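Minutes, project check-in
Item: structure for the 89-residue chain
Input as provided by the requester:
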Amino acid sequence: MAWRLSSVAARIELARKLRERGFYVRWHAYEFLLGYRGQLVGTLLLEPSRGRATLYCTKGAPLAEIERALREAVGEVAGGVKLEVVEAG
């Protein structure tokens, strides 16, 4: 169901679910700029045609907590998406 993220409605739903989990979300097309607990944590890049999402995050971000919340939100909207986390910087 990764293809579901191709739909604007599904991406709006994903943004809403992330906000419900305490994220700041600003998105354009398939890129989500994410903030958490008052700090910018990274960019989530969605690739629905490949069935994956990649979070490029800043050092020092609470990765375990962020990754868990992202997996839950993405799974609720479009199950089967492979999430990869890359710590940058």
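Outcome recorded: The chain has one domain: 2-88.
No further action items on this chain.
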